[in-house]
């Protein structure tokens, strides 16, 4: 409804710090709803008209719009860029899985994912493509099962019970669990694109002033984040599930854009190309890259 505060979905991880600063210091007028299970859950919420804006992973948003069985108009479009740097996904298994010695030993195993179509699901195909597991003559699909587990906590549990053999999640979110010996890191993979995008519901009016105000406030939140790294570290290690040392290490790896409004066409096209190669999207089917962005 025009004039009401925007309902914004986000992932309650360290990346959310500029959103918190935008609201705390610069008056971002929004109802912030955390989605700990990630981008796939936000896609569901956008299509159910439960949120107006989502801030999540590039590959999840694009996969959601590119599917050939896209419902209705898809429910959302890409409108902004939240993080410029790629995301490092750590590849993890259970602490007591001596049968899993390397990434190569994961071929044909059971991959744990938060949801079908989520970033953790999509990156399984990207991993398989990079490893040559999608090549002619290789078993298809590359994994014996996609085990849907919804949350990071359930993913960690599943690799220790054997319900799943491995999963992928952002490195720094996992690090304290590696350090504690709960799960074991067997490798890593980076997204071949900038990692986070902002999407808006197709129900929002074109040129909605609230969306422009959101970009303005986020830009100020990003600038505050860049200028107040100590405040960022204290917020992350006090309110989120990270140690101070990990928060400081993460700061060295991330870059937020100065201007969050807009999405580069080549980023979307590159992501679609790789998702098609990985078998997540089908060439000539579903929404084309140019139609995903407004």
UniProtKB/TrEMBL annotation:
InterPro entries: Ca3427-like_PBP2 (IPR054364). It comes from Cordyceps militaris (strain CM01) (Caterpillar fungus). GO terms for cellular component: periplasmic space. Coiled coil: none annotated. Residues 89-189 form the Ca3427-like PBP domain. Pfam families: PBP2_Ca3427_like (PF22384). It is found in: Periplasm. CDD domains: PBP2_Ca3427_like (cd13637). Keywords: Signal. Signal peptide: none annotated. Belongs to the bacterial solute-binding protein SsuA/TauA family. PANTHER family: ALIPHATIC SULFONATES-BINDING PROTEIN-RELATED, TAURINE-BINDING PERIPLASMIC PROTEIN. This is Ca3427-like PBP 2 domain-containing protein.
């Amino acid at each position: 409804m025009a004039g009401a505060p925007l309902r914004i979905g986000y992932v309650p991880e360290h990346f959310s710090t500029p959103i918190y600063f935008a609201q705390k210091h610069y008056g971002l007028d929004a109802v912030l709803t955390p989605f700990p299970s990630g981008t796939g859950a936000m896609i569901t919420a956008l299509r159910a008209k439960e949120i107006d804006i989502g801030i999540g992973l590039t590959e999840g948003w694009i996969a959601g719009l590119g599917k050939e069985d896209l419902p209705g108009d898809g429910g959302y479009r890409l409108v902004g860029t939240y993080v410029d740097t790629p995301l490092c996904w750590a590849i993890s298994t259970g602490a007591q899985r001596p049968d899993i010695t390397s990434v190569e030993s994961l071929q044909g195993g059971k991959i744990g994912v938060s949801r079908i179509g989520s970033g953790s699901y999509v990156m399984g195909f990207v991993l398989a493509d990079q490893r040559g597991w999608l090549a002619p003559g290789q078993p298809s699909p590359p994994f014996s099962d996609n085990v849907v587990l919804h949350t990071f906590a359930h993913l960690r549990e599943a690799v220790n019970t054997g319900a799943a053999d491995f999963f992928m999640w952002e490195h720094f979110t996992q690090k304290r669990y590696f350090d504690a010996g709960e799960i074991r890191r067997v490798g890593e993979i980076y997204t071949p694109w900038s990692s986070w995008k902002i999407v808006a519901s197709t129900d929002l009016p074109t040129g909605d002033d609230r969306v422009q105000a959101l970009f303005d406030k986020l830009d100020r939140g990003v600038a505050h984040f860049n200028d107040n790294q100590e405040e960022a570290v204290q917020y992350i290690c006090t309110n989120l599930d990270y140690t101070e040392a990990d928060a400081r290490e993460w700061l060295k790896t991330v870059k937020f854009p100065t201007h969050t409004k807009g999405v580069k066409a080549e980023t979307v096209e590159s992501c679609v190309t790789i998702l098609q190669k990985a078998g997540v999207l089908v060439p000539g089917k579903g929404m084309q890259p140019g139609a995903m962005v407004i």
